[in-house]
Design goal:
Two copies of one chain form a homodimer. Helices cover about 20% and strands about 40% of the residues of chain A. Chain A is an alpha+beta fold. In chain A, helix 3 packs across helix 6. Chains A and B meet through strand 17, strand 18, strand 19, helix 10 and strand 21 of A and strand 17, strand 18, strand 19, helix 10 and strand 21 of B.
Chain lengths: ~450, ~450
């Protein structure tokens, strides 16, 4: 039986290449659009964690991410993973360093234990994890300080960095050199020389990374490292660790491996032509439509197109153009209209600005049973809550009460309040004020027990 | 100076060929998508009434329509027109008969006065109204009992009925015969014989129509005719009046005349490529997009397409396919999500059904200053109103009070209530109940004075 492997999964930033399903707070890896074995929908992160559990790796998983993703990860992965959140976004080296320090200082892992670092969102198959097992074995056998996965290229892509092995065509080899994203011409030459894509999967012993971290700060307290996080250089793991190492091996993987980062690539992996309330006529072809809204979408005579509607917006594009979506979506300067939170989720229903500068915003809040928002006040807005379903508990100015469907609660600016879901709690919230911002919040200690 | 002309404008049913802007209650003729002279948007009915006022016709306008359109007509045309609403939808002969009876019995028009009947929504130009003046003159000079407008065809259309004049090519002629919508082959022959499209414009003396009506019921009381409205046959004016007449003339009109009944034809007349919050990339061509939602629409690489988003749904089609929209839109069985009313308008924000069968619905109600809903109760739902803007008056269980932004009103099932807009009143309404239907309403007498 294999030993326990510490896996660090890097969960990257938001990005808007899959807008309007991904938005400023909802990253693509959390979209539940992939079919799992039992026919239900799962997200990229759920798929990866499921695949790890189905592999022969006895993994202990730590997700390295930013603060903004903690709620989504906890909602989607629960206690299957630990989360180490960067206090601020820097780059992959600091993120991996912090997660490594957590393993050493909090989890008391041994310097001799093997660490595997990988992205949280490749779309791949079980053979990928078999390759990881081989990488772990190579590290354990001290074949190299650092072992990388090399993805067998399917085309002379200009989107990836390349690993050039010493022994062309061998399954396992020492690494001769690396190149950054090449031109297409150079990529074709690289392919002729047996070069492999750098898929961002690294295996090494904990102690190897600890030695590098200790060049920047002492490894005595995790909290201290976290509070000095801004002292780490903004540099990638590739530059700081990989390119400086003189003992690197690569093991090649030639199975399915994709970045589902554009609508075109993602929709290829979705078997259905439609998800949600969508009608396609029989003249429509090569087209997929996803509708998260409750209102219907009717598509007539579309060819090779993508249609996606969510509370944040509507995207319609021919498949080819969908790769250019990012910059257009980034030009849209709107608040996120739906968001997953630790306590449940919310969806914005309306936003209005009035002649006198006052604004109103309405939201549906859906609480997980047992989920509660922090005890809080707002300076610039009143809120009116109408309980539309279920039961919950309210604390308003230190007074606790039970709430249920039909109850209406008025919360004036400055009044302390919190609410906890007990059973299917759903609240329609109306905010009214001169400034309606997620930043207008002061939090207070409160215990429901 | 011309004498006063009584014009009856027929405002037809709902239809969904312009879904999702038109819905079960919002007919295409009320969509404000046409540019008026001053650059603001006007609807087809507003355009027609404006054009009549700009013509030399001294018109007194009566709109013949169904009950469901009274509020839209009054909101868009105000006191520029009178409205005669059929108690139930039958066909064009009964509708015109009722409006004629109104002119005779309520407006005390003389049997000798001229009546012009026309559709409320042709997209045309001032020459059209000049032709109408000529028709009126022909009636006044007793050149024929019935004078029709013949539209000079631009193609062998199979969508229209044809008028075959006795004297091919003459501007004014006796009518030889009519044909129903022909095959394309027959249409080509008709064109060779100088046939004209029947545009549904008729001029005659009031007495002429009164004689026909009196075959069905006595012309003694408008209210009695209205309450016996179901005794009129369900038959078109063409069948009951035109085809039975033996003194018919036609005057031809050869200017711009279109039915803006499909997205393809309507969008040709809209100069802008986008209306509302829409981004089109530079690869998009031949495409127009209308977005009534507040969330953005991004279109990339679309060719010859139509994109329309409203609170009722989203339509995306290539222009050619948009003519087939009607049947698809009719298959969508959803309540209207926005509606113009006499007192203002509403927009549905959310609708949810819960496990125990209870439902919730939220709406934004925007009141015209002075506009008020009827004094009413609901049997099956409670309502919570949050005033989000402006000022109004509330009557709840016979008690009148003033309401303003921030006020919250709870209305239990069975409680009598009404509200009146005073200044920019906007209310967010949450309905909760086992049955949420526009029909769950009992109305009571109440006077705000």
């Amino acid at each position: 039986m294999a030993k326990k492997t510490n896996m660090i999964l890097l969960s990257g930033g938001s990005g808007k290449r899959l807008w309007p399903l991904s938005n400023g707070v909802r990253s693509k890896q959390f979209l539940k659009v992939l079919k799992s074995n039992d026919g239900s929908y799962e997200s990229m992160v759920q798929r990866i964690v499921r695949q790890i559990s189905e592999s022969t790796i006895d993994a202990s998983i730590t997700v390295a991410t930013g603060i903004s993703q903690i709620d989504s990860i906890s909602n989607q992965l629960g206690n299957k993973v630990e989360v180490v959140a960067e206090p601020e976004r820097r780059d992959t080296f600091p993120a991996i360093a912090l997660a490594t320090a957590h393993l050493f200082l909090n989890k008391k892992c041994d310097r001799d234990e093997t660490i595997v670092v990988m992205p949280i969102d490749p779309y791949t198959e079980l053979g990928y994890f078999k390759t990881i097992s081989e990488m772990v074995e190579a590290v354990e056998n001290d074949e190299a300080s650092l072992v990388l996965m090399g993805i067998k290229p399917t085309e002379p892509s200009t989107k990836f960095g390349y690993i050039i092995p010493e022994n062309k065509g061998e399954h396992k080899s020492r690494v001769s050199r690396f190149t950054e994203k090449p031109s297409e011409e150079v990529a074709k030459e690289l392919l002729d020389n047996g070069a492999l894509w750098n898929g961002g999967v690294f295996a090494f012993k904990l102690g190897y990374m600890l030695d590098i971290i200790s060049k920047y700060m002492p490894l005595d307290s995790f909290e201290k490292i976290k509070s000095n996080y801004d002292k780490f250089p903004k540099i990638s793991f590739d530059y700081e660790v990989v390119e400086k190492s003189n003992s690197i091996a690569v093991i090649s993987f030639s199975g399915k491996w994709k970045d589902l980062g554009t609508w075109n690539s993602l929709l290829e992996e979705i078997p259905e032509n439609t998800i949600g309330n969508v009608i396609l006529d029989e003249k429509t072809s090569g087209t997929k439509a996803i509708n998260e809204l409750s209102i219907p979408v009717i598509c007539l005579g579309l060819k090779d197109s993508v249609v996606v509607a969510s509370a944040d917006g509507i995207f319609i594009g021919d498949k080819e153009s969908s790769v250019n979506l990012k910059s257009y979506a980034e030009s849209v300067d709107a608040r996120p209209m739906c968001e997953e939170r630790r306590w449940g989720n919310y969806r914005v229903l309306s936003y209005d600005e009035y002649e006198d500068g006052v604004k109103s915003l309405s939201k549906i809040l859906t609480f997980n049973n047992g989920g509660s928002v922090s005890y809080q006040t707002h300076n610039f807005r009143d809120e009116v809550w109408t309980v539309v379903d279920g039961k919950g508990k309210l604390v308003l100015e230190d007074k606790i009460s039970e709430i249920r469907r039909g109850d209406v609660i008025k919360i004036k600016a400055g009044e302390k309040h919190s609410v906890k879901g007990v059973e299917n709690l759903q609240i329609l919230e109306v905010q009214i004020g001169k400034e309606l911002s997620e930043y207008d919040i002061q939090r207070y200690d409160f215990s429901w027990e």
